[in-house]
Design brief:
Strand content: 5-15%
Number of strands: 6
Shape: globular
Distance between the termini: 30 Å
Largest sheet: 4 strands, mixed
Order of helices and strands: EHHHEEEEEHHHHHHH
Number of domains: 1
Radius of gyration: 17 Å
Strand order of the largest sheet: 1-2-6-5
Length: 303
C-alpha cells in the first residue's frame, strides 16, 4: 500500500519499554482488563482483538475451552494515559512505527470525510506504541495481548513486534496485512463514536456467555468491514496483492482456524471474533462497497 507521501499522524505516543503512567484502573474496551499474569489473561472474557493470535497450542485451547470467551468491557476506567514517560521515546521513528503512523493518518482523513458527509465531526483516536509492556486507560498493556482499542481513552495500543508474529507464526505477511490490523482497531473506535459499543456492552451485561460471544462476533466482523471501507476509500493507494494480503490475514485469525491450529474442534458458540470465512466475507464487503452503511452486522440475518 502506497502511503509514503503521507505525513505521519500527530495523534501518537511512544511509551517505550514498560513506559507511561496510568491514572486509575478500569476495564479495557475492545476487551481487556488489568492483566497481572498470563493465566488471568487466558481465563478472562476481556481480551484485545489481537490476543488470540499470539497464544499458541495448549494455551489457546485452554482459553477457548475453559471459562473463556470475550465481552466488551465497560470502558469506564477512571482517567487515562497522560504521559509518554521520560520523553526519551519518539513515536514513528522506526520503519514499522512510521508505517503505522501513516496508516493512522490515512484513517483520520478517510473517516473525517465520511463523518462530514453525515454532518458530523470525526474525533480521531490516539495510537500509542509500547515495548513489551505499557499502560492504557483500560489498565496494563502487554505485547502478548496484541493490538487493542481502549474506549476509556479512545486509544489504540500497539507493540509493533506483533507484525513479526503475524508474518512468522501465521503466515500473514505484507504491509496491507499490517494496515488491516490497525484499520480494524480504528473500526472499534468508530463503534465507540457511533454508540454501537455502548449498545453491545449493555446487551452483554444480561446475556449468557454464548449470547455475549455472539454479540462480540458481530462487533469484530463490523470492525473488519470498516477496515475494508477504509481500504476501498483509498483504492488509489492499493497495490497488486494488497487485497490478497488482507484476506489472508483475516483468514489466519478466524476462530475456527485458530481452534484447529490448537488441535481442537471448532465450537461456534465459543467463537468471539468470527470464523475465517466470516472475517474474509465482511472485510471483502467493505472493500467492495466502500460504504459504512453496508457493514451492519447487527441487521437481521446479516450474520
Amino acid at each position: 500500500m502506497r502511503l509514503d507521501d503521507l505525513d505521519p499522524s500527530k495523534n501518537v505516543r511512544d511509551q517505550g519499554r514498560g513506559g507511561g503512567r496510568s491514572f486509575g484502573g478500569g476495564s479495557g474496551g475492545g476487551g481487556l482488563g488489568l492483566l497481572l499474569s498470563f493465566l488471568p489473561m487466558l481465563l478472562g472474557r476481556k481480551l484485545g482483538c489481537g490476543t488470540i493470535l499470539l497464544i499458541g497450542g495448549a494455551a489457546l485451547a485452554f482459553m477457548y475451552f475453559s471459562g473463556g470467551g470475550m465481552q466488551l468491557a465497560d470502558g469506564t476506567g477512571a482517567g487515562g494515559f497522560q504521559s509518554q514517560g521520560s520523553g526519551a521515546n519518539v513515536a514513528c521513528d522506526t520503519q514499522e512505527e512510521r508505517f503505522a503512523c501513516q496508516v493512522l493518518a490515512s484513517t483520520e482523513q478517510t473517516w473525517a470525510k465520511l463523518f462530514q458527509q453525515q454532518g458530523e465531526r470525526y474525533r480521531p483516536a490516539t495510537l500509542t506504541f509500547y515495548d513489551q509492556s505499557g499502560q492504557s486507560g483500560c489498565g496494563a498493556a502487554q505485547s502478548a495481548m496484541g493490538p487493542f482499542y481502549c474506549p476509556a481513552d479512545q486509544g489504540v495500543y500497539l507493540d509493533t513486534s506483533f507484525f513479526n508474529e503475524m508474518s512468522t507464526r501465521l503466515g500473514a505477511k505484507g504491509d496491507f496485512a499490517q494496515a488491516y490490523v490497525i484499520a480494524h482497531e480504528i473500526g472499534h473506535h468508530i463503534q465507540n463514536l457511533t454508540g454501537r459499543a455502548d449498545q453491545v456492552r449493555n446487551a452483554q451485561r444480561t446475556a449468557s456467555k454464548a449470547e455475549g460471544n455472539a454479540l462480540q462476533v458481530k462487533m469484530e466482523l463490523e470492525a473488519d468491514c470498516y477496515a475494508g471501507v477504509w481500504a476501498a476509500q483509498n483504492a488509489d493507494r492499493m497495490e497488486p496483492g494488497d487485497v490478497e494480503e488482507g484476506l489472508n490475514a483475516a483468514h489466519a485469525i478466524g476462530d475456527d482456524t485458530l481452534m484447529r491450529g490448537a488441535g481442537q474442534r471448532p465450537v461456534e458458540s465459543m467463537f468471539t471474533h468470527g470464523s475465517s470465512e466470516q472475517r474474509m466475507a465482511w472485510l471483502r464487503k467493505g472493500l467492495q462497497t466502500g460504504d459504512p452503511a453496508a457493514c451492519d452486522t447487527f441487521a437481521r440475518g446479516a450474520v
